[in-house]
Amino acid sequence: MNAGKTYDIALVPGDGIGPDVTKAAWAVAEAAAERDGFALAGTTYPWSCNYYLETGRMMPEDGIEKLRGHDAILLGAVGWPATVPDSVSLHGLLLPIRKAFDQYANIRPHRLLPGVEGPLKAESFDILCIRENTEGEYSGAGGRVHQGMLQEVAVETAIFTRTGVERILRFAFEAAKVRRGRVASVTKSNAQKHSMVFWDEITRLVAADYPDVEVTSYHIDAMAARMVMAPETLDVVVASNLFGDILTDLGAAIQGGLGFAASANVNPTRSAPSMFEPVHGSAPDIAGKGLANPLAAIWSAAMMLDHLGEAQASARILKAMEAATTRGFGIRPGAQTTDAITDAVLTAINEE
Ligand code: IPM
Ligand code: MN
Question: Which residues does the UniProt record annotate as the domain Isopropylmalate dehydrogenase-like (predicted)?
Fold first, then answer.
């Protein structure tokens, strides 16, 4: 705890429901900060698809440099496919930030909040997915030749570096050490004989440094089944960029939906700011209706405070969220407004 300190946060609300949930998360983070005697100063950047329509860019040329000076970034959602193709908006804002700031660990917790009914029989699971966030299948390496012709070819090359694979695995083992001591490493080395055999080798290499952590390798397909059939057997799950992307939507589904799924894009070396965002997108179907569930964004803000060294305020937010869902707020899509759910969390924070 750092009483009296002010953290300088960049707010990038983005598109669709992004501004609504960012506002909610910010209000809750500020309330928690006040209770713990520190402050948050926010600078809002309007970068979004609307910004693109006005300027031709998702963020200004010096956008990355503007963000670099902040202690952390709180992001809402990026994308409005009706006006800007996703491949343009995401590659113009979200993905460059993850890469430029070397936010190589994408951390996504999956568990049921009290009162939330998931689709599974299992209720007591607590999974921490660690997704590699800067390389792998989403490296952006590749190209197209002979466009529009019969012989057209598209190549998308997955890039796995020793540094990249080793550091994400180490991160996962470190996380397991302070949890239940188990790592599930997600592979597909039965079919992908280069990258995933490499991933398995490095898993074994890193595991040797953590004799107290139990490690098991699972193929991605088997892991997808396990997350549905036996999620309680999992602790830390570590995966490449694509595999982790898919598994964390599955994780969101088993925790009751994307409205609950939080994430942190972390640069563990702290050489640049980390970014915190709900896993959900801009949800055009409910945008502007005030019905978005803010809990995923609020949970992400709690992860931000934890990353900044404010563990007590972070725990305070999680406890308040749990109090709100126990009272029936935010547990069923559309049952309450974004504001009502936010107020329920704020009430719980202030009554502790
Ligand atoms: C996520 C999102 C992004 C990703 C998309 C929008 C590029 O699905 O954060 O999981 O795949 O990283
Ligand atoms: Mn995704």
Answer: 8-345
